[in-house]
Design brief:
The chain is α+β, with helices and mostly antiparallel strands. The protein has a domain of about 150 residues: Thiolase/Chalcone synthase (Peroxisomal Thiolase, Chain A, domain 1), CATH 3.40.47.10. About 35% of the residues lie in helices and about 20% in strands. The protein contains 11 helices and 13 strands. The strands form 3 sheets. A 9-stranded mixed sheet has the order 5-4-6-7-1-8-13-12-11, sandwiched between helices. A hairpin with a 3-residue loop joins strand 12 and strand 13.
């Protein structure tokens, strides 16, 4: 008789950086930079050779995104008009990297939540939108720091990395290749943000999340059954980051805007919203789930307007904060970690049998859905 392995979410973990930047602080820093640059280029601006930089405002940021603040790993250098980028002391090869450090913190919370010992875990997936180095894998470093035997690897699907990681882990469980898998998403997105760009300088924040995927046979009584997952990718240049090891040989390129996060925001909104809503509805129908009856949507925390419209198309009505909770206002866009933060902070109150959806979407384009049901 063939054994059936059923994947569930046993626990989640969250690491939140101590420092946070408000919109007021961010605008003051950005506008100081704008004033300085416009003064430096005053002659060229007067002749029309150079367009003056436009200041930002708290009202503009909140209307464009819904973001009010964001957590970061290095506040002072980001707000310094002479730097406007995260900076910290470089660590030696024998020291735990900064990505691994925050990933370990989130993973430990997930393990504690499931009362699981690291020796019980078979694999670690580090799923994030940027890795601080190509190799050794950050996942293997996290694995070693936690004392986990087995295997580990990194994966990157931009803002959908965590949900892609969850399906990958769930597939390992279903196939019997593992009983317990950690999906860790340390997202230091402040490092790829162009803090000098008015249209995007407010978007991202830093955080780390962890999701423990396990075989239902060993899961704690309180867990989430994974009813089904679906992944989709469609190539698009509308969200892009051109930085990579092939252009590191030319240091001057690192200052070019396209070596950081760039996007065509209006096109992204227009193309991603219907794609994601369609994927959710189709997968719900495949699973025999009424999308209008979903108890809660834990959506990717990128833009309040996008989430509002996607939730409306899925639920058939304007979603309440209870139905589609927001963490975007205080965390900013944390790439793949956003939907996991929402799930981590706004899931305990659901009752046994309640069905919800974890969904991410972003560059690629990429989209991932994870339908879950509360057990016990």
């Amino acid at each position: 008789m063939q054994l059936t392995h059923r994947p569930v979410i046993s626990a989640t973990g969250l690491f939140t950086p101590r420092e946070s930047i408000t919109n007021e602080e961010l605008v003051a820093s950005f506008n100081a930079y704008v004033e300085r640059e416009n003064a430096r280029n005053a002659a060229a601006i007067a002749t029309g050779e150079v367009d003056p930089l436009q200041p930002s405002s708290v009202e503009f940021i909140e209307k464009a995104s819904g973001i009010k603040s964001r957590h970061v790993m290095a506040k002072a250098p980001i707000l310094d008009p002479d730097i406007m980028a995260p900076r910290w002391d470089e660590r030696g090869d024998g020291d735990l990297s900064i990505m691994a450090e925050i990933g370990v913190r989130a993973a430990q919370e997930a393990l504690n939540g499931a009362q699981r010992d690291p020796s019980d875990v078979d694999a670690v997936l580090c799923a994030a939108s940027n890795m601080q180095r190509p190799y050794p894998a950050i996942a293997i470093e996290i694995q070693q720091a936690l004392g986990i035997d087995g295997f580990a690897f990194d994966m990157n699907v931009a803002c959908s990395s965590a949900t892609f990681g969850i399906q990958t882990a769930a597939d390992y469980i279903r196939a019997g290749h593992a009983k317990s898998v950690l999906v860790v998403s340390p997202e230091i997105t402040s490092g790829h943000l162009n803090w000098r760009d008015r249209d995007s300088h407010f978007i991202f924040g830093d955080v780390a999340t962890a999701v423990l995927i396990e075989d239902a046979a060993i899961a704690p009584a309180v867990h989430w059954d994974i009813l089904g997952t679906r992944l989709k990718t469609v190539f698009s240049n509308n969200i892009r980051n051109n930085f990579g090891f092939l252009n590191r040989a030319h240091p001057e390129t690192a200052a070019n805007p396209d070596k950081l996060f760039v996007q065509e925001g209006r096109k992204v909104f227009k193309e991603v919203v219907p794609m994601v809503a369609q994927i959710i509805v189709e997968e719900a129908q495949r699973l025999g789930v009424d999308p209008h009856a979903l108890r809660r949507l834990w959506l990717h925390q990128a833009n309040a307007g996008m989430n509002r419209l996607i939730a409306h198309r899925v639920l058939g009505h304007e979603a309440s904060e209870d139905e589609s909770p927001t963490v975007l206002d205080t965390y900013g866009n944390t790439s793949s970690a956003g939907s996991i933060i929402a799930f981590h902070k706004h899931g305990d109150d659901l009752a046994a049998g309640d069905v919800g959806l974890i969904c991410s979407f972003g560059a690629g384009y990429s989209a991932g859905t994870v339908f879950v049901r509360k057990a016990a």
